[in-house]
Specification:
The complex is a heterodimer of chains A (664) and B (354). Chain A has 664 residues and is α+β, with helices and mostly antiparallel strands. Chain A is built from 26 helices and 18 strands. Chain A folds into 3 domains: 120 residues, Four Helix Bundle (Hemerythrin (Met), subunit A) (Up-down Bundle), CATH 1.20.120.160; 237 residues, Histidine kinase-like ATPase, C-terminal domain (Heat Shock Protein 90, 2-Layer Sandwich), CATH 3.30.565; 135 residues, OB fold (Dihydrolipoamide Acetyltransferase, E2P). In chain A, the strands form 4 sheets. Chain A has a 6-stranded mixed beta sheet. A 5-stranded mixed beta sheet of chain A has the order 2-4-5-7-6. The two termini of chain A are 52 Å apart. The chains are: A alpha+beta (664), B alpha/beta (354). Chains A and B meet through helix 1, helix 2, helix 13 and helix 14 of A and helix 1, strand 2 and helix 2 of B.
Chain lengths: 664, 354
């Protein structure tokens, strides 16, 4: 039966159930730690009960059936007539997965099919006061994966990454084609039957473009094929549902409570104080705000030559109002990072159970708000990083005890807002990384020679793991270790104008720091001129600007470097990359150097002219430019010209790698 | 003036649905919503709702506790929303005992197959409950009443031992009323008892068990073929009809599927009629609190055969419907407050309160 996805009641059910499902996810994992917590058992019971109630209101019988049985099981549990066992948890977690799948169907406007009868039967058996049923077959695949390991290992570690491969991988990432990953993929799949979906977790430039198209209203004809692609992956979170609705009950209740006895009688209704808005409409508003920002920039630019005070005042006011409007609209699109963090207790729990490790997950700053699209796009990279921390970072309980650490490792996820940025960290108290091992590996893989490797600082070594094909895990597991993941994570994060870096201490643990802009639609940029063309450099990547004597450069390992505060920094002329084919002009004696911060590295970029800072409204690139490495989009400058927005990390990786591979 | 309703449910989804349903009725005004029992208790004193709809499963404070608290601070008719499970039955009876006036299944489909009919039913229940602004007066001292009854002329039918059967019909408010009446009866009560309480099929079993635990007499849900036995009360199963059949000097209970035109399952009329046929002039019949007029026609048959009919009085009824129908038709030999009924029966049939 097809359901009307615009039906208010269905939407209401979807929104209210999503919160419950997220809570259930967390509660179930907590339950494994505190199986006797009556309050927790009650809460889980109520979760199933409430979803069942809503589903039965809409006569969604398959959903009612499974929730009803889940409720029955927890009713026994909360009355102490049955105890929580790992087998029971496996079944219950699969029930939750099944319910989540049903909601995916509902989101698509389709009535969900009945749940797996075997699962229902298991549940029913659990709901009867008998002995527990035979363990569910979910826990076994980890063992089954063992025989496949040798092949997987070969596939994963023998491959020295050649330039050609690297080249094609980059191209593939840029164009959205995944073929170069195929050598690794079959091995990984055979080794990982338990994994629900291959965790490719990548985002291509094409996808990013598609996102931008969405932000801009998706009118560009070139964008349509690409825009279609990311849609299915987004469905679970990206249903057209508004965030403010979640706050609905509270205001209503506060109001009615605040009303005095007589006023209460007068208030004729308990009208909801929030309104449901399609995200598409929010995107349109954001787009229009973008246009307004452009007009303002243009006006400011025109005004630059005039001295009319009243005009100055008016433009100043316009500036303020536009900024406020921009902030206000951005806020409507904000969602707590909880949306992503909320699923990690389950992820960590499953990994710990598969690997027989003991891992505690700590979450901090879950209420930090991030642009809705960003929340969704961060999901895959974060999942990958957390899996890595659990798999590579945290040691086996025995090893931890031997090292004088508590048996259970801790993975800490934090989120906080710092200015116009969001800082996310993933830290673990595991084994940490050995810089020397990384150096050796880099040399083995032919990425650099021994001397180069020796010169790298510890931090630089750690960040090697973000290079394609650089997996240090000797054995490939189904959790992580395919050597493409970290590279993809970095590519994805930098495509969102963010940056990622890692710090580690051998024996103590590792810490990954991700910086993300607050929004994807408008970003502050440094406008520069290279060979008469204007380019926008995301301010997030710009560390400082120097005016320097360009004759004092040296060449080290074939790479031009310049000394800044007694530290050698690689130096590149942007015109060589962005104005290729033009006659190379003689190098001026003095030049503007923009110091770009990419991960833990600093790179100097010589530009012809500095214009200043501007709010760049990101516009998607046309089909001909789409996928060009190093370009994040385009924007319209204050004087009405078009400027390309550079994606500095990708740009540098793409062009600089021949001379300076270790730049992260 | 419209009925002021407070909706208590931890599910925002349900609060909004109920608000929509009530908002569509001009006679009902939703004056507030609460997400758990505590919020409801906090809001009741100043919102002064006429009726409260209450969920049972809620965080912070469950519905049963909330009913108890609300009845203590500001007695208000409360309509419980129950799930039709054994578990739901127990919780519902606890809520009714705590003072809730009535209950409805939480699933609209369980109220009526047709959603619009279900919504109408829900609205009419709320409006009806609103007509009762307070709960029955606190029960008078039972012994005083017994003395009063002892002084009063005993049933016209004459001496104790005349009766062969006791039958009681009830609806809204019935579970608590029945409990109170039956608890007053002694273990060696000399008559078989037939109970008809309007209730869904999943509830009658747990209800019978509950009564059995609380009362000195034996109470069980009637099964087809049960033999009438003194001191044993048989509760008509929900969704069915309870009839009687004489066979070989014994009287058997027959449980049958309801006819399509029968609104009430079980129906008081159906069982009363059966009693009137099998025990002409030898039955003591009671009509307790409840909505509608089920029992009136059965009482008429009983009266015509010379049996005795009592009705609960208006003051102590949660809903003065069925007893009113009987009394207004001139079929009630006595109209009694709830607290007097149990001792009154014991006295009437010559059983002494132990």
């Amino acid at each position: 039966m097809a359901l009307d996805p615009n039906d208010e009641i269905l939407q209401d059910l979807l929104v209210s159930s999503r919160e419950i499902l997220e809570a259930l996810d967390k509660q179930l994992v907590e339950l494994e730690q505190r199986p006797d917590d009556k309050e927790l058992l009650n809460a889980v019971f109520r979760g199933f009960h409430t979803i069942k109630g809503g589903a039965s209101f809409l006569a969604l019988n398959s959903l009612v059936a499974i929730c009803h049985r889940g409720e029955d099981v927890f009713n026994l549990l909360r009355r102490g007539e049955r105890v929580v066992t790992p087998q029971l948890m496996d079944v219950v977690l699969r029930v939750l997965d099944s319910v989540n799948e049903m909601f995916v169907h509902l989101n698509n406007g389709v009535e969900p099919p009945p749940a797996d009868p075997a699962l229902l039967a298991q549940l029913e058996a659990l709901a009867k006061d008998g002995p527990a049923p035979p363990p569910a077959p979910v826990a076994t695949p980890a063992v089954a994966a063992a025989p496949a390991v040798p092949t997987a290992k070969d596939a994963g570690t023998s491959g020295d990454i050649t330039d050609a491969e690297f080249e094609s991988l980059l191209d593939a990432l840029a164009s959205g084609d995944t073929t170069p990953q195929k050598p690794a993929a079959p091995a990984a799949t055979s080794a990982a039957p338990a994994e629900k979906k291959p965790d490719t977790g990548e985002i291509s430039d094409a996808e990013f473009e598609a996102l931008l198209d969405q932000l801009q209203g998706g009118n560009s004809p070139a964008a349509t094929p690409a825009a279609a692609a990311p849609a299915p992956t987004k469905t679970p979170q990206a249903a057209p549902t508004p965030t403010p609705v979640t706050a609905a009950p509270a205001p209503v209740e506060t109001r009615s409570r605040a009303a005095g006895p007589s006023e209460a009688a007068a208030s004729a209704s308990t009208a909801e104080t929030s309104v449901r808005v399609d995200t598409q409409r929010l995107d349109e508003i954001m787009n229009m705000v973008g246009e307004l920002v452009l007009v303002r920039n243009r006006l400011t630019n025109l005004h630059a030559g005039m001295t009319d005070e009243r005009l100055t005042k008016a433009i100043g006011d316009l500036h303020m109002v536009t900024t406020d409007l921009q902030v206000a609209v951005m806020k409507t699109r904000m969602q707590p990072i909880k949306k992503v963090y909320g699923k990690f207790p389950r992820v960590v729990r499953d990994i710990a159970r598969t690997l027989n490790k003991e891992i505690n997950l700590e979450l901090r700053g879950e209420d930090t708000e991030v642009d809705k699209n960003l929340v969704e796009m961060l999901n895959d990279p974060l999942v990958h990083l957390v899996r890595n921390s659990c798999d590579h970072g945290i040691e086996m309980p025995e090893a931890r005890v031997a090292a004088g650490k508590p048996r259970a490792g801790t993975v800490l996820l934090t989120a906080e807002q710092a200015g116009d940025h969001i800082l996310l960290t993933i830290s673990d108290d595991g084994a940490g990384m050995d810089a020397d091992v990384l150096r050796r590996k880099a040399v083995e893989k032919g990425m650099m020679d021994v001397e180069q490797a020796a010169r790298m600082t510890g931090q630089e070594c750690y960040n090697l793991i973000f290079l394609p094909g650089f997996s240090t895990k000797a054995q490939i597991s189904d959790i992580s270790g395919r050597g493409v993941g970290m590279d993809v994570v970095r590519t994805k994060i930098s495509s969102l104008n963010g940056s990622v870096e890692i710090d580690s201490e051998l024996g103590k643990g590792s810490r990954i720091l991700i910086r993300m802009p607050l929004t994807l639609a408008i970003m502050p940029a440094l406008m520069v001129v290279v060979d008469k063309q204007i380019f926008a450099l995301p301010l997030a990547s710009v560390a400082e600007i120097l005016d320097m004597d360009l004759t004092t450069t040296n060449v080290v390992d074939g790479q031009l470097v310049v000394l800044v505060r007694d530290k050698a920094m690689p130096l590149f002329y942007l015109q060589h990359w962005l104005a290729a084919g033009q006659a190379i002009r003689p190098i001026p004696e003095n030049g503007h150097v923009v110091v770009a911060q990419v991960g833990s590295q600093r790179v100097g970029l010589v530009v012809d002219q500095l214009i200043g800072q501007e709010e760049a409204v990101i516009k998607p690139l046309g089909s001909r430019l789409q996928g060009t490495p190093g370009l994040a989009g385009a924007t319209i400058t204050g004087d009405g010209r078009i400027a390309l927005i550079l994606d500095l990390p990708t740009l540098i990786r793409h062009y600089a790698r021949r001379n300076y591979r270790e730049v992260a | 003036m419209s009925v002021r309703v407070l909706i208590v449910d931890d599910s925002g989804f349900f609060r909004r649905r109920l608000t929509e349903i009530f908002a569509a009725d001009p006679g009902i005004q939703v004056v507030g919503t609460a997400a758990n029992g505590q919020e409801a208790v906090d809001q009741v004193p100043h919102l002064k709702p006429d009726v409260i709809t209450m969920d049972i499963e809620m965080p912070v404070m469950d519905g049963i506790t909330a009913v108890r608290r609300i009845m203590a601070i500001r007695p208000t008719p409360i309509l419980m929303f129950s799930s039709l499970t054994t578990e739901g039955a127990t919780a519902t009876f606890d809520a009714l005992e705590a003072g809730a006036a009535d209950y409805l299944p939480k699933r609209l489909e369980d109220i009526a197959a047709d959603r619009n009919v279900a919504i109408r039913e829900l609205i009419s229940r709320v409006r009806l409950l609103a007509t009762r602004s307070t709960r029955p007066a606190p029960r008078p001292q039972a012994e005083a009443l017994v003395r009063e009854l002892v002084r009063a002329p005993a049933g016209r039918a004459g001496a104790a031992g005349h009766y062969r059967i006791l039958t009681i019909g009830a609806s809204t408010g019935g579970p608590v009323a029945l409990q109170q009446v039956l608890m007053a009866l002694p273990k060696d009560f000399p008559l078989p008892i037939l109970l008809i309480q309007h209730m869904p099929g999943t509830f009658t079993g747990p209800f019978a068990q509950r009564l059995n635990q609380m009362c000195k007499i034996t109470v069980k849900e009637a099964v087809d073929g049960d033999v009438l036995t003194s001191g044993q009360a048989l509760l008509a199963p929900g969704g069915k009809q309870m009839l009687l059949e004489q066979r070989a000097g014994q009287v058997l209970v027959r449980i049958q599927r309801p006819e399509p035109e029968q609104n009430y399952k079980p129906s008081v009329d159906v069982t009363f009629n059966a009693v009137a046929r099998v025990f002409p002039g030898k039955a003591l019949a009671l009509v307790l609190t409840g909505m509608g007029a089920d029992g009136r026609e059965g009482a008429r048959q009983l009266k015509q055969g010379g049996s005795t009919v009592w009705a609960q009085d208006e003051k102590t009824c949660v809903v003065y419907g069925m007893p009113a129908a009987v009394a207004e038709a001139g079929l009630a030999d006595q109209v009694l407050p709830l607290a007097s009924i149990g001792p009154g029966i014991a006295h009437e049939v010559g059983a002494w309160i132990s």
